[in-house]
Amino acid sequence: MRNFFMMCCILSISVSYASAAKTMRIITLAPHLTELVFLLEQESKLVAVSDYSDYPAQATSYPSVASYTGLDFAAILALQPTHIIAWQGGNKPQDIAKLEALGLHVLSLQTLTLDDIAKNIIDLGEFLDASTESSTVLTNSLAIASKYSQNLFQLKKKYADREEQSVFYYSWATPLMSIGK
Predict the structure, then answer these.
(1) What CATH number has the domain bearing residue 89?
(2) Contact (Cβ atoms closer than 8 angstroms) between residue 120 and residue 36
(3) d(CA 158, CA 168)
(4) CB 24 within 8 A of CB 82
(5) Is beta strand 70-71 parallel, antiparallel or unpaired with respect to 170-172?
(6) Which of its termini does the chain have fewer beta carbons within 10 Å around, N or C?
(7) Each residue of 126-178: pLDDT tens digit?
(8) Boundaries of domain holding 68
């Protein structure tokens, strides 16, 4: 009887673990990454986002586990994420490395040019699609990236003859912060 009870306990733990492994649990560590998850229609799998994830408005209903100062590792681990999407250049490299060292499944995206946005959409689709039984996420990401690239190409073509403009973007007062070169 005792062995039967032990076997039932072990079996129930392994069954609950297996079903939990099938349920995708996504955390995004920057606002634009949250927007990409919504764009790919995977918001039902989100469990946490970063501060200032406010678009679409529904994004504000998720708990925040990241800010410009760093990550809340205790909250991240408590949520048991299956997928973490980080911003290379926005999140601290040591924070991303720590997540990976903890054995978490992390995709780190970098956006240096407008063309990188399409690549990031595809990379995110592949990252999320690898854990699903169908290829709908990847198919959706390829279609969105293709449309984005076509629109970007048309804009570049339309404005190709225009003189390049210098811009100063004032993003913060104290200390004075700007973006770009």
Answers:
(1) 3.40.50.1980
(2) yes
(3) 23
(4) yes
(5) unpaired
(6) C
(7) 999 866 666 788 888 899 999 999 999 999 999 999 998 888 888 888 888 88
(8) 25-158
